[in-house]
Amino acid sequence: MADNAETNRRAIRRAAAGGDMLHRGGDGAPEAMGYCHCRSRRSWSGGPVNAFSLWKPDAVRVTAGEEHIATFEKTPLSQRKYCSKCGGHLMTNHPPLGMVDVYTATIPTLDFKPAVHVNYAGTVLPIRDGLPKLKDFPKEFGGSGEAIAE
N or C: where does the chain have the smaller number of CB atoms within 10 Å of the terminal CB? Predict the structure, then answer.
């Protein structure tokens, strides 16, 4: 879907940090999409659940405004990137996972197709959508991989 990938790139360029910062989050499709229910992400996003789209690092590039990107590293797992001019959340690098989470809200044309809920044991907003609910993370990301009921 080359047309969709190009549309996503254009949309991200317009959306990120009110148009001041340009970053590409998506040559093609993300590696994974879903919802995170952990307290840390809820606090960072200001919402009861956070949608994610995970990309390989080489699919995400900052094309302008890099000097305005600030980082908050709460843990070695997450390097949260935001715009120091406007405070807008941009993405989170996850070095141990080899992935970058480009926030789905910064990609308005992304065909968001969530496949999983992670950290569902800590949910404050139960979502009954038939998707798998993992207690924490998949095994390949260092979690238990344990599924729990909706």
Answer: N
Residue that the structure tokens 């238990």 belong to: 144
Distance CA 60, CA 38 (A): 24
Helix (H, G, I), strand (E, B) or coil at 122: helix
The domains found in the chain, sorted by start residue, are: 2-141 (3.90.1590.10)
**pTM greater than 0.85:** no
pLDDT digits (tens, 9 = 90+) for 7-38: 444 444 444 444 444 445 555 789 999 999 99
Contacts for 42 with CB less than 8 Å, ≥ 6 apart: 48, 49, 50, 124
Residue 28 in contact with residue 5, Cβ under 8 Å?
yes
37, 120 Cβ separation under 8 angstroms: yes
CA distances to 46, 123, 125 from 128, rounded to whole Å, are: 21, 12, 10
pLDDT digits (tens, 9 = 90+) for 89-135: 889 999 999 999 988 888 877 899 999 999 999 999 999 999 999 99
